[in-house]
Amino acid sequence: MTLLMPDYSLNIRNEEHPKGNLSSTNILIEYGDYECPYSRLGYRYIQKFLKEDTDLKFIFRHFPIKKKHPHAEMCAEAALCAGDQGKFWEMHDLMFADNQNLSREKLEEFVQKLDLERRKFHVDMESHIFLNWVQRDFRSGIKNGVNDTPTFFMNETKYEGKLAYKELLAFVTNHKSS
After folding, report:
1. What is the pTM of this model?
2. Distance between CA atoms of 147 and 151, rounded to whole angstroms?
3. 147 in helix, strand or coil?
4. How far are the Cα atoms of 31, 82, 127 from residue 59, in angstroms, in the given order?
5. How far apart are CA 44 and CA 72, in angstroms?
6. Distance between CA 139 and CA 125 in Å, rounded?
7. 165, 46 in Cβ contact below 8 A?
8. Which residues pair with 151 in a beta bridge?
9. Residue 68: CB partners within 8 Å, gap ≥ 6?
10. How far is residue 150's CA from residue 159's CA, in Å, rounded to a whole number?
């Protein structure tokens, strides 16, 4: 069964960080949590999709499940702080590469590795300048029936299958516009 997604979620905000073919009308949205092992698996699938499919725009939306993953909201904010310095996807990749050990200390290592301007990063993190963005992503997920991570939407349709590469690839392929 697939559910139609309200237009709200398909409206890509200018400040979001799209990846892939930026001019594509085929939009894959993932609601994910940086500490979630299943989101990490979804991350691996998305990496393959983007390498193999030249007609796909990908958007990652933050859906931190704080009860299960105590650092997820902080990590979402950190990704956006890095994005403010032009390194959203680099931080995103580092967090998913080692998502079993995410902590404030690990984020410090990533800040150094990415050569981010440390003072700006810390000021932004301490002031929670991107917390509203994270909460807005979370609310849009709730509004569209997201209750766990990862959850995928392809061109207005929610994926309801199991988290398996072939099934997700078939879903993406079958829901692309011509």
Report:
1. 0.91
2. 8
3. coil
4. 9, 16, 25
5. 18
6. 21
7. no
8. 31
9. 33, 35, 36
10. 10
Burial string for 100-136 (b: 16+ CB within 10 Å, else e) reads eebeeebbeebbeebebeeeebeebbeeeebeebbee
> How distant is the alpha carbon of residue 40 from its chain centre?
10
Q: Say how many residues make up the chain.
A: 178
Distance CA 57, CA 24 (A): 6
Going by C-alpha positions, the residue among 50, 61, 3, 2 that lies closest to residue 26 is 50
Q: Do the beta carbons of residue 41 and residue 167 sit within 8 Å?
A: no
Q: Is 84 exposed, middle or buried (0-12, 13-18, 19+ CB in 10 A)?
A: middle
> Percent of the chain having pLDDT more than 90?
84
Model confidence pLDDT, tens digit, residues 54-80: 899 999 999 999 999 999 999 999 999
Residue 132 structure tokens: 């509203």
- Ordered strands of the 151-154 beta sheet: 19-20, 57-62, 27-32, 151-154, 157-158
